[in-house]
Design goal:
By secondary structure, the protein is mainly α. The chain has one domain. Helix content is 72%, strand content 0%. Helix 1 packs antiparallel against helix 2 and helix 1 packs across helix 3. The longest helix has 41 residues.
Length: 121
């Protein structure tokens, strides 16, 4: 049988794990935001939008290197936008779980999780 103290300890361990998970998602969100700032901001060029889903190695040989680079940068930008959205959604889910753990732990949450963290270092 699990004692009340063991249950509380398990909640604290899980809460710390969620705090770290939320933090890791934030690192990714921040990185993707920086990456997006360095990629094209404008919409797909009308003459290249047909290649939005094309693999780079399947592009026509008639396209010059500048066009291929533009296609590649826009594809990468679109991929990063999707990854950013995914990270935000997953971070939101982790936050909900953390908040549920926080409610179970109670008013001493910050102190107990900080103490657990200090013991991990």
């Amino acid at each position: 049988m699990v004692t009340d103290q063991e249950h509380l300890n398990n909640l604290i361990v899980a809460a710390f794990g969620r705090e770290m998970e939320i933090y890791q998602y934030q690192i990714n969100v921040d990185n993707y935001a920086v990456m997006l700032a360095a990629l094209p901001q404008e919409s797909w060029p009308d003459d290249l939008v047909q290649y939005k889903e094309a693999a780079i190695d399947k592009l026509p040989e008639s396209l010059d290197d500048d066009a291929v680079l533009t296609i590649s940068e826009h594809q990468y930008r679109d991929r990063i936008r999707n990854l950013l959205r995914t990270e935000k959604v997953e971070q939101s889910k982790a936050t909900r779980v953390r908040d549920a753990l926080k409610a179970q732990i109670g008013t001493d949450y910050d102190t107990l999780v900080a103490a657990y963290k200090a013991n991990q270092q």
